[in-house]
Amino acid sequence: MLILTTESIPGKNIIEVKGLVRGSTIRAKHIGKDIGASFKQLVGGELTGYDEMLVEARKIAIARMVEDAKAQGANAIIGFRLTSAAVMQGAAEMLAYGTGVVIDE
Is the pTM of the predicted complex or chain greater than 0.90? Predict the structure, then answer.
């Protein structure tokens, strides 16, 4: 599945627009990671537990978006975006979205 942030695909013709495609996930770290993150806030540094959580969340959200695009009959996604939001302390939602299209091969 071709995924682009642009609104067009150079050298390809978009022959059909399927519409919005999306995938999301809400992820949380366990209490041990939260305690470690609290200590990191005191001394500074990268919060690797949360970094790992967000990397995993991005992968899952993008995979679900691709599944949605395939289910709609799209073979490419344009206008791809990622957004995240804190749902509660230690938990975040990751949303991947774009426009599913059919391009000529």
Answer: no
